[in-house]
Structure to design on (420 residues):
């Protein structure tokens, strides 16, 4: 069988589609063996486990296959760093599903030139459809028993996969694991050593001790990383996740059976919110794990991240569309106190109202802000935004600028984190 035009790689390995179900399942009849005679390390597929034939002749070591889901769109300027960070893992047994979501900047040509002879990478080009569709394309193609997500402008530490596999072996009841992250600028300069709690505002409600019910010293599990204070945590996080996202997708690894229970990314959440929806459903299924050591470098400050008013309104609308139905349907199963549920609904409507205000959509802004205040009356900032929504646009913009300046001078920050 010849590979389709939009896929390149060695025939019989990269060109075969082996899925027989919703999330790409191994097909025992179609799995192909590959000869080890011409390579130092080579792989062949069996029904569920991939074995690596290592340098010692006749010695076979069982090692799990990790499927790396890597969507990209017009990131030719940084895609190599991301791909190389996955290929250079100390856990070598990986397949990289690089899904090009309609790039027009030469990404395909660059990948073909650099990685055409790399047997662990499969490149698939599709029409531009959004990151959730791209990730779902990879989920239908994957072969591994573990799935790790990577974004094309981020970089993994070389031991990320090895660390997470060791941790998941320690806690087999956890279906997903994620970690802390470093923040870097476009030149690779380190800006923050631990950025997760700063980026995701929902962490303001919880300490690690409140979120998790199990805790293990990481040095007792693995020598990676070298931080002696790093710990592995496990808990049921469905209720805390109602307050907002706590999970950064490129730090995650998910067991295949958990992905099969959760299903695909929500493709209706095209511009934003698909990550939060997926992780919320993952936490709804069962226990998850967290390591408080950074395993990735997250690039911040690029223009294509969701910071513009046009994108902010989609983020706000999708966040509200994700939590509101679950709060209505699962109220009896959510262990949060009523004041916290009121607070997150008030903040969600305030966020959407402010996004409408920035776009000059004053009537919509007033409606959302008023609803926010009905959920929680004591919100001085929301009252000021509602007042601004009744002003002419020029005066409203001046008032918002003044308020932002005051907050920045007071050290309170002036922008909402995209992570929610």
């Amino acid at each position: 069988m010849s590979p389709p035009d939009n896929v390149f790689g060695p025939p019989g390995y990269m060109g075969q589609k082996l899925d027989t179900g919703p999330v790409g399942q191994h097909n025992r009849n179609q799995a192909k063996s590959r000869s080890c005679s011409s390579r130092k390390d080579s792989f062949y597929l069996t029904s569920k486990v991939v074995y690596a034939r290592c340098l010692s002749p006749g010695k076979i070591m069982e090692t799990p296959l990790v499927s790396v889901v890597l969507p990209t769109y017009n990131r030719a300027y940084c895609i190599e760093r991301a791909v190389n960070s996955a290929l250079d893992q100390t856990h070598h047994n990986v397949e990289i599903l690089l899904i090009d979501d309609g790039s027009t900047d030469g990404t395909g040509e660059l990948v073909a030139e650099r990685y055409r002879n790399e047997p662990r990478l499969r490149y698939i080009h599709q029409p531009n459809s959004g990151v959730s569709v791209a990730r779902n394309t990879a989920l239908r193609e994957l072969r591994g028993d573990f799935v790790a997500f990577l974004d094309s402008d981020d970089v993994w530490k070389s031991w990320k996969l090895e660390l997470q596999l060791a941790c998941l072996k320690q806690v087999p009841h956890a279906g997903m694991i994620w970690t802390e992250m470093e923040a870097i600028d476009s030149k690779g300069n380190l800006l923050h050593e631990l950025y997760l709690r700063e980026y995701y505002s929902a962490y303001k409600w919880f300490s690690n001790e409140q979120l998790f019910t199990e805790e293990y010293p990481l040095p007792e599990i693995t020598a990676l990383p070298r931080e002696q204070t790093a710990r592995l945590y496990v808990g049921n996080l469905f209720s805390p996740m109602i307050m907002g996202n706590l999970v950064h997708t490129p730090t995650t690894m998910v067991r295949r059976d958990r992905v099969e229970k959760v299903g695909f990314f929500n493709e209706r959440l095209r511009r934003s919110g698909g990550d939060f929806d997926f992780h919320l459903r993952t936490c709804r299924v069962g226990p998850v794990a967290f390591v408080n050591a950074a395993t990735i470098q997250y690039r911040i400050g690029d223009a294509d991240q969701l910071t513009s008013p046009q994108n902010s309104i989609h983020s706000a609308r999708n966040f509200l569309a994700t939590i509101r139905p679950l709060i209505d349907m699962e109220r009896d199963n959510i262990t949060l106190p009523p004041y916290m549920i009121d607070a997150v609904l008030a903040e969600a409507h305030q966020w959407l109202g402010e996004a409408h205000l920035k776009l000059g959509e004053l009537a919509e802004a007033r409606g959302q802000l008023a609803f926010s205040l009905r959920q929680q009356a004591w919100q001085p900032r929301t009252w000021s935004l509602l007042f601004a929504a009744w002003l002419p646009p020029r005066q409203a913009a001046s008032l918002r600028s003044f308020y932002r300046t005051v907050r920045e001078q007071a050290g309170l920050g002036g922008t909402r984190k995209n992570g929610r």
Notes: The chain has 14 helices and 15 strands. Residues 309-409 form one domain.
